[in-house]
Structure formats: structure tokens, C-alpha cells
Specification:
By secondary structure, this protein is an alpha/beta fold. The protein has a single domain, classed as Vaccinia Virus protein VP39 (Rossmann fold), CATH 3.40.50. 26% of the residues lie in helices and 25% in strands. The protein contains 5 helices and 7 strands, in the order αβαβαβαβαβββ. It has a 7-stranded mixed sheet, with helices on both faces. It is globular, with a radius of gyration of 15 Å.
Amino acid sequence: MRIIGGQFKGRKFYPPAKKWPTRPTTDFAKEGLFNILNNYLDFEEVKVLDLFGGTGNHTYEFISRGCRDATYVDRFGPCVAFVKKTAKELNIASYVRIVKSDVFKFIEHCPDQFDYIFAGPPYPLQSIPDIPDRIFTKDLLRTGGIFVLEHNPDHNFEDHPRFSQVRNYGTTIFSFFE
């Protein structure tokens, strides 16, 4: 995996993926997503939440582009340890809050609001359709903010009242909510 933009552009990192329950977003899909986000967000001013953070790929992209307030959440201990190690190596530990937690428990108890929320859950997760409502019920997205849910073609959110657009990158789909 590599960071595709910003200060760390081109930097590669190698998570020990043996038996990891992760599915990192492909560079192709990530590049498409960040091309869209460039038109909507000021990366240096945004407060970011990365749910089901896995290897930290999404968090690194934001920090590389100038974000100084990111929260990463994942429940898998080795992923959390890898992100802590990578944040230290990149000297960005002060910019990212790393939380080892079940995402749904985190959402339930989080008192903060964010300008941008990304959720990249495991595709087989049965509760993917519930994620947008949980985010909005708990009022985690600031007014004018963007929530992006990564999913596969098995899900369609176009009828959700907060849905704004969808982008398809093969079997990777990003649904945008506002």
C-alpha cells in the first residue's frame, strides 16, 4: 500500500497482512475518492473520523494532506498496534487519536462531531445498512460535513434521506451522505 498524495506521497507501508480481517481500499478507488474530496474539503481545517480503520490507510492520506485532527477506530489489536507504530514512524502521532474499540460501541458513546467521516467496514458485515442511521442518530457529522461509506454492490443507499451521490470503482462503491 502507498500514500497517494500530500507530504508523504509515494510512501509505502507494509502491514503484516497474514490472517488480518482487513480489506484495504485499492489505490485506484482511493485516488478517485480523494479527487472528489479535494473539491469539498480543506484538509488542513477538517476534523476526521476513520471507522473500521484497518491499516490506517485513510487516516494517513488525510494527515499527509495537512489534517491535524484525525480519529482512527478499529477493534482488531494488531491493526491498532500497526497504526500506532506507523504513526510514530511518520512522526504524526500527535495528529491522530487511535482508539481500539468496536465501531458501534464507539459511535454510541462518542461525544464529538466531525467534518468528515469515513467507514470502510468488512463487506460481509451484516449491519452495513445500519451504519448511516447510526451516524446521523448520534449526530456525529457536523452541519455541512460529508460521510462516506465504502461498500460492495450488494448494498444500495440511494433511497436514504441523507444520501447525496455514489461513485463506483469496480466492486468498491463509495456512497456519500450529507
